[in-house]
Predict the structure of prolyl oligopeptidase.
Amino acid sequence: MPESYPNAHRTDTVETPHGFEVRDPYRWLEDPSDPACEAWSREQDRLTDAWLRDLPRREEITERLSALLRTGSVSAPVWRNGRSFFTRRESDQEFPVLFVREPSGTVRQLLDVTELDPSGLTTLDRWSPSPEGDRLAYQVSSGGDEESLLHVLDVTTGEPLEGPIDRCRYSSVAWLPGGAEFYYVRRIAPELVPEDERQFHRRVWLHRVGSDPDEDVLVHGEQLHHTYFYSVSLSPDGSWLLVHGSPGTARRDSLWIADLRNGERVPELRRVLDDEQGVQASARVEPDGWMYIRTTLDAPRGRLCVADPNRPDPTDWTELIPEDPESVLETSRWLDSTGSDPRLAVLRTAHAVSELTLHDAGTGELRRAVPLPGTGQVTTMNTVDTRTTTGRDRIWLGWTDFATPPCVYSYSVATDETEAVEHAPGQEAVPEITSTQLSYSSADGTTVRMFVLAPATPPHGPLPTLLTGYGGFALSREPAYTPNALAWVAAGGVWALPSLRGGAEEGEQWHRAGMRENKQRVFDDFHAAAEHLIERGWTTSEQLAISGGSNGGLLVGAALTQRPELYRAVVCSAPLLDMVRYEKFLLGRLWSEEYGSAENPEELEWLLSYSPYHNIGEATEYPAVLLSVFESDSRVDPMHARKMCAALQHATSSPPDKRPVLLRRETEVGHSARSVSRSVGMATDHFAFLAEATGLIRK
């Protein structure tokens, strides 16, 4: 390791928005095409590669992580007209493969992205079969850009019917009966909007298979704000069109419904809910003809209402299942079980752990609790469609927990039993662990829960510990198969995941308690988790590592600048770190509802109070830091990590050979899905960096 870092010249760039003095000495690192930025990045690459390459026991780490990541996976089936569609990834495959199971039981491969693109850069983003099960719309993207291209294939022959249709990022597809047309979401042509708005301006369109997509019929979205996101769905008989929308990532939903029974394919949409009401709502018209609405209206933990779709306004909703003060309502599915009245399967989470119950569809009365495999997460809950004659009394569940790779269970109403349908092919590679959920107090006295994984027979004394979290955008961190956690515990360490405010583990109020002016509470919850682990003897500050990505990268960035003495090492991946200028890059403007905007004086003050880049102290002993970024990231700009890296390398008083500050870059990969091989490579670097720093693995 050299005695000094690559030179990054500091400028005297100072701005005074709303009277606040904001220094930005590394503004020049925002432009990746600047020759100075390119040269600096190449020097950082050489430095990081040399350091990571020399970390001890890399081959052993790679082998363990590879085995855990190559357990494979299988998804719960989606039923259409007797056919079931599902994905499966074998132990030696880089990506899941899409299959169809015929009514006869024969299984056929439909789509393998590695056959479309042997380079491993293409991912399958979404897929949707038609009601008849004879056509499939699917979306793929390449190089991590998430710019989904939509295709349609014939399920029987596997032959392509059309595509690609571009500008379909994050698009849902709602097929009309017959499979000739579908509703979907597509951005308008880029030449029609300002250059800095080309990632926005989504619309709902009606498309006929085989026709020119530029001749699609506009259905909805022209008069709304350009940041609106939409999703579309249809009732099983095709009678009702539902359009959900929200401005960006804001938790404020709009809902529209349209009657298609008169044959109009571009009907008048009736607004049911307006985003100005500030609540969430998701609706389905089920086979019984009623509209079921999951909403936070007057219920921050969620309640289930029912309405006649002819009279869909909230004033005409009837509460079917009330809010539960101890759990969060996730979703429901209508079940036409043979030989009994229709039932509703209702999925909740209690302190981030899934619970499933069966209710009378007419009255909402609780009939029974559905047995689940353990303390974990139901990732998917499906029932058969109205065209499928078998399996009407069954619920198919996608399942995972900390030690179980994604697998499938099935629950039978008739027998009241939940049985395994298919396990991941490589599950035997998973080590034995103990999992505990404990409680601790945050700085303001709020009780926060935390999952802790440890060896089945832990050694005596404090252990190297990896603490992670997210705490934002109402995203809940539930028990899920986590290879890096299992590898850490298998090596003799402890892994911990607190349910921070800003997430939705305790409902919408929990989310709001950690957003905007309350963001500091998220960091306080995280610091308190670290202190609790130390006080209870799990670890010490010299053995404590932290990691987080995206909004979780902001979390650990704030943690290391606020409490550098508390943490020994940090992995900060795809992070937001310059909270004054985040709105100016990529999708940043969508997140002002969550964080606040620098355009507003009061909100700028919130942002400056914790913005990691702006709160780096001179001559401070910072932890070892590995900033990890993806050059094709289309959500969070890598400029955040570049600027933070330069600022930390300048400010830290820690010697580079003991507590280095490094920048790890990847190309042709983005914020989301990646191949197993690339996942193993990144996980190895992260694991080895933190393990060496905390003493989990020594030279």
